[in-house]
């Protein structure tokens, strides 16, 4: 009698955002979400993001009502629409995370709980399974709670994260150590080594210090990060500590990373609350970088830094002043899919 051998897990690799992409996914705002008080303004911002993306590559827009959304984003080349009603619009954190395997791409559908149960998220968490027919790649679901904004890959097996997010007991409470979290990241994403930051936060952030608000890989060896030089700012101590931690990190060859500081905006408030405005929440796409701007005196300085960081890509500023009212920004509302995933939703 032949006894089948147990399946051997395929090696996995988590592509970096700066690698070639197939498409970017957006979730459009709707009236049954927290965007309701300024829904038209929010929709216009999402439309500008969709239009910018579609100049370079396909954009898939998840819609509560396709006809309504198409009043903001007209059908056209590189624009596809799929009907599904979500709780909210933070595509970065509730969309699938794609890895490469020897057998092709695999979309990992992690559990999303509204950043540790802060907000209703059942429909968001179910989205990937509901629209899986749009993806020309298989999906697999996980009970492990993980948000795309909480991880940053250099494409070569290194993952940059914060302890405040991944070790927070409001996520995976049964896993209490770095080693336990790292084991899951290695199994699901093929991570070879996790680079942990213990400091860094932004006032008004609901995510428990997602790494994509603080520090990002621009290439395999370069990290840009939010720098605070104003000793009177409430972020000064934490971001200074984060900067020192980044300087202490080493790659797999024992070499330090090239570090490029990003300016910090002036304090921006809405309804008496400081908002998490950050230039680190940019999106890399094929041929361009979309950079959030906030009508702030530091916008031009930030755009100049990105032109230096990405000389081969067009740098496009997108006014994200309305997005930060809901405590996120440009990267938070988008999710890129690598080139090995085929977009199958009709335009």
UniProtKB/TrEMBL annotation:
Keywords: Hydrolase. InterPro entries: Peptidyl-Arg-deiminase_porph (IPR007466). It comes from Sulfurimonas diazotrophicus. The keyword Hydrolase applies. This is Agmatine deiminase family protein. The keyword Repressor does not apply.
